[in-house]
Each structure stands twice: as structure tokens, then as C-alpha cells.
Amino acid sequence: MKRKSAKELLVDSFRELAMTRSFDKISTHDITENCGYSTATFYRQFRDKYDLVAWAYCQDTEQIFNTSENSNRSIKEILISAAKYYYNHKAYFANLLLNVRGFESFMLNMTEVNYKKMLEILKSAGKEENLDRYTEMLVRQYVIGMVGFICEWIVDKQKADLDELISVFLDTFPYKLNKYLTT
Questions:
Q1: Long-range contact list for 137-140, CB < 8 A, 24+ apart?
Q2: Does residue 54 carry a pLDDT above 90?
Q3: Confidence check: pLDDT of 183 > 80
Q4: Residue 52: which of 19, 23, 82, 10 has the closest Cα?
């Protein structure tokens, strides 16, 4: 059995606190006190709580999009997993988006992480070393729209249940990339 690293335990502590407190009211001292670590340990792992959130999001995204563990999963299945992830963590992301000073900064980070993972998946699905520039532009446009929609949905500017969320992810996938949905 694999033990959790200090980084993972600090993230767990932060997420636990984020269930009852707004992001801007959680200090690094609160995070470390909650899990029994020192603030020195926190700063050996992360620059600040924004760095912690970014690292945690990258780890979550890696798990959702990881095709090496789940090589039989199609892009369609990965998009469904992504929709379920956001649906299941809506309150957490609402806390971040509504209480982090840099809403746009968080969106930009989400966009970059998702864009890079989507490119990796398409390359893997199509067994291609590189994608052409136009395909990369389609992927970027899709990811920008998806992240923008998800952020609006998280803060209740859009209403959708899980099935509608999945449909939006799948129905807006660029038709020129549909060949990747089934591979």
C-alpha cells in the first residue's frame, strides 16, 4: 500500500478546510495545523496556497486524463469522467473561483492544464507524434470554451445536471476531431 506524501496530505488538509471555509479565510497555518505538519514543511512543498491549489488541480487532471493507466478508455469516456469530476467537486471549485483574487488566473491555469492533457490524449489516440497546427487550434478553442462553461456552471451562471454537462462536453467536441472520440 502506497503512503501519501506530505504534498498529498497538505492538499487533503486544505480540501477538508475548504469544505467549511472560504479560500481567502484559509491560511497556511490552518492547513498545517489541520494535518499536524509545520509551516516549514508546507513551504518546502509549496510556495503558497495558490501553488497548492494549482498542483492539486494538475494531479486531479492527470488522473482524469491518464490514458496510460486506462489505455482502453476512449476520448468520449475521458470527457465523461471530466464532467463527473467537475460535477462531484462543484462546491470546492465554487469556493476557489468565488474567493480567489485571481478568478481569471485560475481559469487560465485550468485552460493550460486541460489543453496540454487533451493534446497528449489526441496524440496517443491517433498514434501521432505531433498534431498539425489547425488541430491544435481546434483543441485550444474547445478547451477554452469548455473551461469557460465549467467555470460559469460552477458559479451557477449556467444550470445543468450531470447528464446535461456530459452532453455539453460531447456535443461541443469539434466535429473535425470526432475520429478521436472512438479510438
A1: 138/174, 138/176, 138/177, 139/115, 139/174, 139/177, 140/115
A2: no
A3: no
A4: 10
Nearest to 83 by CA among 180, 160, 177: 160
Nearest to 35 by CA among 7, 62, 58: 7
Distance CA 58, CA 148 (A): 18
Q: What does pLDDT average to over the chain?
A: 87
Indicate the domain borders of the chain.
6-45, 49-181
pLDDT in tens, 152-173: 998 899 999 999 999 999 999 9
Residues 153/86, Cβ–Cβ less than 8 Å: yes
- Level-2 CATH architecture, domain 49-181: Orthogonal Bundle (1.10)
Question: Residue 127: its pLDDT value, please?
Answer: 80
Query: Would you mind telling me the total number of residues written for the chain in this entry?
Result: 183
Three cell numbers at 103? 478568478
Q: Which CATH class is domain 6-45?
A: mainly alpha
The three three-digit cell numbers of residue 20, written as one number: 467549511
